[in-house]
Amino acid sequence: MQETVNKRRIAILGSTGSIGRQALDVVRQHKDLFQVELLTANNSVDLLISQAIEFDVNAVVICNESKYGQVKEALDPHDIKVFAGMDSVCDLVGGDNIDMVLTAMVGFSGLRSTVAAIQAGKAIALANKETLVAAGQIVMSMAKQYDVPILPVDSEHSAIFQCLQGSAGNPIEKIHLTASGGPFRTWTKQQIQDATLAQALNHPNWSMGSKITIDSASMMNKGLEVIEAKWLFDVGPEKINVVVHPESIIHSMVEFADGAVIAQMGHPDMREPIQYALGYPARLTLNNRKLDFAALGSLTFQAPDTDKFPALALAFESIRRGGNMACAMNAANEVAVAAVLKEQIRFCQIPQVVEKVMDGVDFVVNPSLDDIFQTNESAMARAVEIVRSMTK
Ligand code: MG
């Protein structure tokens, strides 16, 4: 990582998504500290073009190759290099002009480029949790091997990371991972059976992309975050306690041997953890809303209900089974969520798809990266079949 004498030069993978746009807002406020070198997007051509021009980037990649011509034509006069396809992302993240890579793509698709960035020795600001869910063991040992920091961007994991800054090497006794509970927290199991897509997309506290919003409603997001925390902080699932905290003010907590608990707080605003990762270890100013404790009055907590939210139980089950199970679970969930977003299946059917895929997976105890890619592919194919059988 290049330190403050020069600007930190960053690549943003997935710049047109919710995290990518908020990251650029952070950069906009600290242009003296950050230089954006590379932006990548799947399909959002117009936004990618305007971002590239505004931040005067070195290069962009449009992953959908059929849109290359359109981007090339728009950016040629600005002397911005244009590439297409995932192979280009993997090549370019390793460039000498990049210090840090923010991985803000959606889902498993982020794994290849994250691996490429680690192998090129780049610091990783990790927003793509599915990378660790699918291949946590491999990614973390690779980060150790290449001596690159993995700075969490997920708000809960950023909170845990921040809580650990003052731990002086004392081990974690317990992580208290907070969850808002999503839009269906107060619904009965029966009501959730009838939940519509619009209701699932209506998150009470956080403004996020559609995939993670559905994951939050099913609480699969919290399950994915338990797995993410396990790998990032090297703790067993018995040391990770999920606690529902509807106000989303405490972003997570760490408990130590003496029972002392350190919490990190703030209004829910993803720019805060994004900025902390991009600027780490510096704390920079941010035009966010500050906490007024008297106005808050009280904070509340409750235990999660895995009967109402079986996806959370499935995630713990995937950790218990180990190997490639979390990868298969994640793949099934991605397919199921996409099917819900296209209104092919109902929201409440997500855990059914996931469970069926997990039960039929070819289990691998110590998966290689190739095994992970293969598991992802076969689990997705199986999930597509299951979705199809449900829509008949
Ligand atoms: Mg989160």
3D architecture notes:
This protein is of the alpha/beta class. It has 17 helices and 11 strands. It has helices at residues 18-29, 45-54, 68-75, 86-92, 111-119, 129-145, 155-163, 189-193, 197-200, 210-218, 220-233, 271-279, 293-296, 310-321, 325-341, 350-360, 369-391, and strands spanning 8-13, 34-41, 59-62, 81-84, 100-103, 123-126, 150-152, 174-179, 240-244, 250-255, 261-265. The strands form 2 sheets. The protein has a 7-stranded parallel sheet with strand order 4-3-2-1-5-6-7, with helices on both faces. Strands 9-8-10-11 form a 4-stranded mixed sheet, with helices on one face. Strand 3 (59-62), helix 3 and strand 4 (81-84) form a beta-alpha-beta unit. The longest helix is centred in the last third of the chain and has 23 residues, at 369-391. The protein starts with 7 loop residues before the first strand and ends with a helix. Bound molecules: magnesium ion. The site of magnesium ion (MG) has 4 residues, from helix 7.
